[in-house]
Protein: Transmembrane channel-like protein
Amino acid sequence: GHNLGAIISQYCNRTAQLRRRSSRPPLQQLSRTARPSLRQYDLETDPASATLEAKRRRLVKELMSLPPSQSSHMLLTMTLNLGEKRNLRLLPHSLLSPSSSPQGCRGLWYRLLSVLRAAQPWHYALKHIGGRFGSSVLSYFVFLKTLLLLNFVSFFILLAFVVVLQAVYPPASVSPSPFTGLELFTGAGYFTHSLLYYGYYSNITLNDPCTFSPKGSVCPLTAPSLPYNLPLAYLFSVGISFLVTCILLVYSVSRSFRESVRSSAGDLAVKVFCIWDFKVIQRRSVKLQCENICTQLKELLVERRSRSRTQSRCQCLGHCMVTLLAWVLALGFVSGCVLAVHYLSECMHMDSGTWQQEAILLVLPLVVSLLNASMPYFFNLLAKWEKQDSPVTQVYVAIIRNLILKMMVLLVLCYQWLNRSVICSTEECWETCVGQDLYRFMVMDFLFTLLDTLFGELIWRLILEKRQKTKRRPEFDAARNVLELIYGQTLTWLGILFAPLLPAVQMLKLLLLFYIKKTSLMRNCQSPSKPWQASRMSTMFITLLCFPSFLGAAAFISYTIWSVPPSETCGPFRGLETIYESGKRWVLVLEKSNPNITWFAWVCQHLLENTCLLFFISVALIAVIYFNVQVVRGRQRVICLLREQIANEGEDKLFLTQKLHSVYEQRHR
Structure:
């Protein structure tokens, strides 16, 4: 029964209300005489006095002030005929003015931001995984993406300042061995004298014209104003790579702590009433968001059930005895694995004359990778025997046991590498041999990961479906797979000094792992039977990557630079007592060339070489991180207290309401 003008006025008011919700200015900036609903909006107070054309123009202006998606949706839901909607769409072209150009630029900017966000690596794939399998499985792929970023930063620094320049100015050519294909697994042979390893790099100033002059002759040219010292660039590139990685890791740890606090503050009511994203309008995205919300609700319910369970004293005592016995067995098996690795490496070093074939070099990496792949299944059997109620506790225990195994094995290997206990011929650099060892460990770890994916997921799914005729599928063990990533990244950081292109190998490995694991997850695995929130797990994963992994690799590299003498016949630091001596010589040359910067030499001498100062700086850094953790925990306690206070206030209000009802009933009687 409404005419066209009334309908247009009605939708104009709706559009104005929608715009005011998102762009209403603060009340302090407006005059007191204006009505709050009509301030600074150029709206008429009496819509009945306006003509039909004015109402139409006003509606078009309001539609133009909205984002494009809301404007299109509003126009689509209007109860107008198609001709009137067509006129409304064509009318903005006649109303365009210079003031509308900023709005168009803003819409273009928002569209560009949405495109950039969607263009992030694996954006939709991560959403699909999180919605179908939950945050516990998603944490593995997010962690893999973080490692890919860290390796790209290290690779770019070394490529730009060392690898490319050495490739432009190659050293004296050495007849390479013929390529047989076995080098892809051993890293030796054809790859020995290549840019992949430390021994290929020279110790010269690359753009010095006197470098390539014959021996005994006088160089007729003057020295360049900016000589490029390759040993110094090699040392500084490795140091800057570790420094940038440390900054990124500390930032990731702090951000992960903040996210864990936010997620821990969530409740079922918040998840039910406040989690839906109303900007999602595509059917595919809506389905993903529904699956994600259902998985998050399952995770919260499982956590609440595990907290509400109570045990008697006898049950607690029996559970403690079983846990203690399981830990004794786990530590005993770890000790046996470490001793086996130690004796095997010693035997290979003692019988180095008979172990020179390239295929035999894969024995130690094969044994270590076999232990790293098989021991987690033994730990899973112990976990089933322990029968932990909370899935989070079960994951924590599995992480600690696997971490102890991997770190102890790496400690034994690092000790042998620093003592020159590597299988290496007299013509080769011991640094190159260490780099080859680390390359073999990385390749063998990748191959065992593929075998575990094949037999542990694909073959096991086929057995369950074909033989046992069940719809169950193997579950994706996120904690064990994340520890495998941390182990591989530790190998990369340990070998970055001995093989500058090792981050590129790690990047290729991570790219292949993402697509292989994603395909296997979608086709062979099911959602976790005990869902658990991975917010705290993600914080623990990035913390483990920062402290045992990165800190241990940085200590190993620092000790090698400061204390271990390099090879005398090869590498960029040949002829020096230590690698750090190249930096000291550069400081002395800098001081002699320009007496005005003697302060820089003093700073290097009293700061970088002062072990006490470095110790206090490390203690201060650890103290800052510790206090940040304590602040986060303090905020969590405050949040818990505020929740209790809100619950108590609600109970008080309920009690007072019941009292008032009883008083009113007594008066009524």
